[in-house]
Amino acid sequence: MKKIAYVFPGQGAQYVGMGKPLFERYQIFKDVFIRAGDLLHMDLSRICLEGPSVELDKTENTQVALLVYGYAAFQVMTQEYGIRPNYMAGHSVGEITALVCSGAIDFEDGVKMVRVRGELMRGAGHGAPGGMAAVIGGAIEEVEAVCAEVSTRLYPL
């Protein structure tokens, strides 16, 4: 017997136009975006489908967009095709998407929570040195050396 897992992505997976084929084909997908947009008093589908990327990439928009996209796609898979997962997981905000899809967190509560999470993350670095970066590839020793150098420079002991 096959086991199915849905794994939901975190911030960085977003792009302008994400979900467009699903939005155009499935009313249930569109309805999820409309519901979230009404809840947040914003045109979330426009931001996702048309951009601009500078708007979608704002963390408070990105995180909501990924949650809503994941939940909307989940609705298509389960309601249109009857494909239910045995397991669900996610990376970062994708964990919250998995919890919403599993029913552990109500959709509306999840949308509101993720919006606040994004707003808090946006404001967390104001006035303090710091930043965030993704490391793709490279030897662990190189990554450790760069982290040690930057940490020492920003926060001398």
| Strand-pairing-aware structural class | mainly alpha
Helix content: 55-70%
Radius of gyration: 18 Å
Uncertain runs: none
Average pLDDT: 92
* Major sheet description: 2 strands, parallel
Global shape: globular
Number of helices: 8
Gap between N and C termini: 56 Å
Along the chain, the helix and strand elements come as EHHHHHEHHH
Instruction: List the strand order in the largest sheet.
Output: 1-2
Descriptive account of the structure:
The chain is mostly helical. 61% of the residues lie in helices and 5% in strands. The protein has 8 helices and 2 strands, in the order E-H-H-H-H-H-E-H-H-H. It has helices at residues 20-25, 27-40, 44-50, 53-56, 59-80, 93-102, 107-124, 140-154, and strands at 5-8, 87-90. A two-stranded parallel sheet has the order 1-2. It is globular. It starts with a strand and ends with a helix. The mean pLDDT is 92.
